[in-house]
Amino acid sequence: MRAKRQKVYKRAMHSYQTAFGFRTPYQILLDGDFVQEGLNNKIYMKDILPSTLMGPTKQLITSCAIAELRSKGDDFSGAVIASKRFERRRCKHVEPVSSAQCIKEIIDKDNPHNYCIASQDADLRKFLRSVPGVPLIHINRSVVVLEPPSKATKNKMAQLEKAKTLPNEKELSFMKKKKKELKDQQKKARKGPKQPNPLSMKKKKK
Asked: In what order do the strands lie in the sheet with 136-140?
């Protein structure tokens, strides 16, 4: 991998760590077509993916993705065998659904488990770009590519960065308390010292 690309990928993954809490080993959820494309290009996933994400990785695949590969016939039998080497990621589907649908449901609206997605499905990747905080990987002409952070991801990063400059709940409570104390002090100052009772100041009759 070229040094310039390494720097770009390292900076991207650092952003995901800082903004969304990604940690190594990075969990990569693969679809069947990505596995098949890797075989076609003689890519050894357990070597190339850590060097792409600039850190240790863990490869996962769902039963739905394996079932989809099986449904494609004998030409994909090698990918089925290769998929079994990856850790199985459980999904909620008793009857298999498409790999894309399965991954969409796992990622949901905010990628709660901090998965990276490795997919050759252009439509799936297009959909996932609308979800903040999803690193996307695909193979392009035998090169494993980490996509730049999407617009939705960049917007979310900017929001989170802005939020860091604002006071948190504890600070707001402290500021509210101090403001009330200052207001009470100002009220007392306007009233001035308590004047003595005029009757008590009269001279006693002889």
From this structure: 87-89, 57-62, 26-30, 115-118, 136-140, 143-146
Single out the residue of 86, 126, 130, 88 nearest to residue 108, CA to CA.
Answer: 130
pLDDT in tens, 30-60: 999 999 999 999 999 999 999 999 999 999 9
Q: Which amino acid is at 178?
A: K
Helix orientation angle between 32-40 and 63-71, rounded to the nearest 10 degrees? 60
The pLDDT of 62-84, averaged and rounded, is 95
Alpha carbons 105 and 89: distance in angstroms, whole number: 13
Q: Which residue in the block uniquely carries the two structure tokens 């903040």? A: 132
Q: Please say whether the beta carbons of 79 and 30 come within 8 A.
A: no
Helix (H) or strand (E) holding 87: strand 87-89
Token code pair at residue 190: 């306007």
- Rounded Cα–Cα distance for residues 27 and 149 (Å): 17
- How far the first Cα of the chain sits from its last, in Å, is 110
pLDDT tens per residue across span 137-171: 999 999 999 999 999 999 999 998 888 776 667 76
